[in-house]
Amino acid sequence: MSNSVCPSCGQALTVGGRFCGHCGAPVSFQPASQNLASQGSAWNNPFRASQYVIEQKILAIRDTYGIKDTSGNLLAYVNQQLMSFGPRFWYEAPNGSRLGEIHGKILAIRPTFEIYDGQSQLRAVVKRKLVNLIGENWWMENASGQEIAKVHGNIWEHDYNVQAPDGGHIAQIHKKWVSVRDSYCVEIQNPSFDPYLVLSYAISLDHSEKKENHSGLGVRI
């Protein structure tokens, strides 16, 4: 571990990482001893912009998403593993390399999704309240269990905000830019929050709410 700490959460930083492994904030500090080899071993995160389009069901045989920039360039696929114990997705670059994974935990006491980066490191956990109360039903914790984000709005309509625990804006999910069915947009409003976590947050919520709605258990907030 590096002797440097994250300016956002104060946790120790991993040498070579571009984002804090605890809160997802981007890290610009690089130790003087870091060389090209250690830089090359860092996770190759392609999500560095502030605006994205998520297209659903590119392939009919499975629950598949495509993530594009606003110019229409494909950044990654998010494919669902068909034979798995609980929902499991993986991010795949256009060249076929894996970029990260989302693991749904069906035996958890509440709907739960674990988000891993391209180095198989747990980055965040998405959870949902057991009881449908007024307000935010879904929230995100970092790998240490600290709440770092929550949602407010209508998930089923893809019209909601991702907010920090103090209410600060992190991102907005909406359909304002797109007319294609089953596509929606993600705008990152807080540049200190890793877009990969926001995209994974949106996909986890979309998958869970869509499955529950089809089974007659849909919840709108």
In brief, what are we looking at here?
The protein is mainly beta. It has helices spanning 36-40, 195-214; strands at 51-56, 65-68, 74-80, 88-92, 98-104, 112-116, 122-128, 138-142, 147-154, 159-163, 169-174, 183-188.
Explain what the structure shows.
The chain has 221 residues and is mainly beta. It has 2 domains: 1-42, no CATH class; 51-214, Tubby Protein, Chain A (Alpha-Beta Barrel), CATH 3.20.90. The protein is 11% helix and 32% strand. It contains 2 helices and 12 strands; from the N terminus they run αββββββββββββα. It has helices spanning 36-40, 195-214, and strands at 51-56, 65-68, 74-80, 88-92, 98-104, 112-116, 122-128, 138-142, 147-154, 159-163, 169-174, 183-188. The chain has a 12-stranded antiparallel beta barrel. Mean pLDDT is 78; it is low at 29-41 and 215-221.
